What we know:
The chain is of the alpha/beta class. 44% of the residues lie in helices and 16% in strands. It has helices at residues 15-25, 45-55, 82-95, 108-116, 134-139, 141-144, 150-156, 170-181, 190-193, 202-218, 230-241, 249-255, 278-294, 306-321, and strands spanning 3-8, 30-38, 62-69, 101-104, 119-122, 158-164, 184-186, 223-227, 259-263, 300-302. The strands form 2 sheets. A 5-stranded parallel sheet has the order 3-2-1-4-5, sandwiched between helices. A 5-stranded parallel sheet has the order 7-8-6-9-10, with helices on both faces. The longest helix has 17 residues, at 202-218.
Amino acid sequence: MRKAFVFGKFMPFHKGHEAMIRFALTKCDFLTVLICVSDQETMPGVLRKSWLDETFRQEQRVEILTYHYDENILPGTSVTSASVSEVWAVAFKELLPDYNILVTSEPYGELVAGFMGITHIPFDPERKIVPVSATMVRNNLWEAWPYLPDSVKKTMMKKVVILGTESTGKTTLTGRLATHFNAAAVMEAGRDIVADSNDFSMHDLYAIATAHAARIKATDAPLLIIDTDIHITISYGEYAFGKKMQIENEIFSINKADLYLYMDNDVPFVQDGTRIDEAARNELDVSHRNVLEKYGIEYEVISGNWEERFEQAVGLINHLVNFRSQGANFSSVTHS
């Protein structure tokens, strides 16, 4: 029986890793993937394992193992070194004594296999098939985003929701933040379904909930700035009709965000002909906040003039996603 193994840190797992693992499967009967987790690293091994488990859940010939090690015993370096390779070869031989194939994309793969007395099969050492590396992902998530498997995108993506009552600048701020951060803007579905806030039905609210969730789900980017969410739709139902909407768990899950920014109603009311009046706007503000509290949604209140609101939002989003420079390289907090 041909038993092979692949090893790496997978910080994070990307499509280059996936291609190597699928290539390795063509060379063996059974494959073990070792996720090597150093005691000096902060990215949890359980997170890395979840990415691979989800990606290969249908493949019966693959097992995913997490291998925790002490860097004082096993050096955590990617430099090609005979002495380092020999130390790792001893550890791998003890862990996988009856394996006969090693697949890597690294020069040191030949050395490790040689010390183990097994065959090394290289895969795309020049990174031409899938031009990505974990370093590239960590340094520029925007550029590397297309090379991430869906399982990784789910945990890397950050969602920011802009909330508030009518005429508080939600839509304008959403667009401006998306431009500033080179993010994807998800605009509210309500305006496309209901032209006038004084004329809508419960049926319309359910249509809005479904359409808005579909928009969020269809948007693929590291950072989403989302105009309004399901809780505001629920609030409209309670405020206008005194009815609680029955919302599916999937819609709540899709709408779930990492940061909620609530626009205070301390700005002048502007009637564009399709909005409720100012008194109702302020009553709706109370309803929105009550619904958010009821559902346990914690939010940051954004107040002041338009420029102050923008600056407050930028600061909070920067803190969330750990930007290295103004809207440039985006590195997920899980990389710290």
